[in-house]
Amino acid sequence: MRLHRLDITAFGPFGGSQTVDFDELSSAGLFLLHGPTGAGKTSVLDAVCYALYGSVPGVRQSGQGLTLRSDHAAPATRTEVRLELTVAGRRLELTRQPPWERPKKRGTGSTLDKAQSWLREYDATAGDWKDLSRSHQEIGEEITQLLGMSREQFCQVVLLPQGEFARFLRSDAEARGKLLGRLFDTHRFAEVEKRLAERRRATEAQVRQGDAELLADAHRMQQAAGNAMELPDLAPGEPGLAAEVLGAAAVARSTAREQLTIAHSRLTAAESARAAADRNLADVRELARLQQRFAQARERAALLEERADGYRQAQARMERARKAEAVAPALELREAAEGEHRDAARAEARARDLLPETFAGAGAAGLAAAARRAAEELGGLESARRAEQRLTELGVERAELDRQERADEDVRQEAEAWLAGWDTNRAELRTRIESAQEAANRAEQLAVRREPAERRLRAARQRDQFASDTEDAQRQVLARAERAVEARAHWLDLKEQRLNGIAAELAAHLTDGEPCAVCGASEHPAPARKSAEHVDRAAEEQALTAHQRAEEQRTEAERRLGVVREALAAATAEAGDAPTDQLAGEVAELERLYEQARRDASWLHPATEELRRAEQEHDRRTGIQQQAALRAASRTALRDTLDRERALLEEELAQTRGTADSVAVRAAQLERRAALLTDAADTARVAEDTAQRLKDADARLADAAFRAGFETPQAAADALLDDSAHRELQRRLDAWQSEEAAVRSVLAETDTAAAAQQPPADPDAAELAASAAERRTRDAASARDAAARRCTELDRLSARSAAGARQLAPLREEYDRVARLAALAAGTSADNERRMRLESYVLAARLEQVAAAATVRLQRMSSGRYTLVHSDDRAGRGRSGLGLHVVDAWTGRERDTATLSGGETFFASLALALGLADVVTDEAGGVRLDTLFIDEGFGSLDEQTLDEVLDVLDSLRERDRSVGIVSHVADLRRRIHTQLEVVKGRAGSAVRQRGQ
Question: Three-state DSSP class for 440?
Answer without folding.
Answer: helix
